[in-house]
């Protein structure tokens, strides 16, 4: 076994928040929700739960409506962001349905009161759900405009006492530059929060990164495309980038 690799069967991260972009739910489509793609994510979450992990989720709303884009077209920003929050609720309900179809107990908690369709966000209740093995999906960001779902994910990860925030993306980590534009870009195995901010490596917005840095909770960036990638991250295996308060390290 390679040096530093956790022993087989032992999770490196037991309680985690998984952050998915709304665009990830589109699959190969141009907008909306692709159910087979949601089912793929649901199976990965079910595997992680069976391995002993406690999981909560935050899902963006960009596949349905993006507040910044609406504001850029002339809509008032606070109103546009409110519409974006509603989009995250729709995604959360879709993922809840898919998870429960495969037998995973799930609760949706919204930062905006929507008692007819989901629970209000109550921190202690969310903790209890996770202790009972339920997957909790946090919707509507933090309930206020001008904050992204990245910031909402960082806040909920801290409130839930998560061991890490797992950011599922289309690339397998954080690179020194955009690998699609720069062939010389190399992937970090580990990078410090301060360097991430100083070099403006756009993994999450700066408010979210600062919040995670100040509370010393790591972010792990990995690719959703690889089969078993979520489980690998939980065991400390596979290809990813870990963002911490420690120094940078390239593979």
UniProtKB/TrEMBL annotation:
CDD domains linked to this entry: AAK_UMPK-PyrH-Ec
InterPro entries given in the database record: AceGlu_kinase-like_sf (IPR036393), Asp/Glu/Uridylate_kinase (IPR001048), Uridylate_kinase (IPR011817), Uridylate_kinase_bac (IPR015963)
GO MF term set: ATP binding; UMP kinase activity
Stored Pfam families: AA_kinase
Binding site for UMP: 61, 81, 142-149
Function: Catalyzes the reversible phosphorylation of UMP to UDP.
Name of the protein in its database record: Uridylate kinase
Source species: Hyphomonas polymorpha PS728
Gene it is expressed from: pyrH
């Amino acid at each position: 076994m390679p040096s530093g690799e956790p022993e087989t069967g032992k999770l490196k991260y037991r309680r985690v928040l998984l952050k998915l972009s709304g665009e990830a739910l589109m699959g190969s489509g141009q907008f909306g929700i692709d159910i087979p793609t949601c089912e793929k994510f649901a199976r990965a979450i079910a595997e992680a739960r069976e391995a002993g992990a406690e999981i909560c989720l935050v899902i963006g709303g960009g596949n349905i409506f993006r507040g910044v884009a609406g504001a850029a077209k002339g809509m008032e920003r606070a109103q546009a962001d409110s519409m974006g929050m509603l989009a995250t609720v729709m995604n959360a309900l879709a993922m809840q349905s898919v998870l429960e179809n495969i037998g995973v107990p799930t609760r949706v908690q919204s930062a905006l009161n929507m008692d007819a369709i989901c629970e209000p966000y109550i921190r202690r209740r969310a903790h209890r759900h996770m202790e009972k093995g339920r997957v909790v999906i946090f919707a509507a960001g933090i309930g206020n405009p001008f904050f992204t779902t990245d910031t909402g994910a960082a806040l909920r990860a801290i409130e839930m006492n998560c061991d890490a925030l797992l950011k599922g993306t289309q690339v397998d980590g954080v690179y020194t530059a955009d690998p699609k534009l720069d062939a010389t870009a190399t992937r970090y195995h580990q990078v410090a929060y301060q360097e991430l901010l100083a070099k403006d490596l756009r993994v999450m917005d700066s408010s979210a990164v600062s919040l995670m840095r100040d509370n010393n909770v790591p972010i792990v960036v990995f690719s959703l495309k690889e089969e078993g990638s979520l489980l690998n991250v939980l065991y400390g295996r596979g290809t990813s980038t870990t963002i911490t308060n420690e120094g940078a390290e390239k593979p």
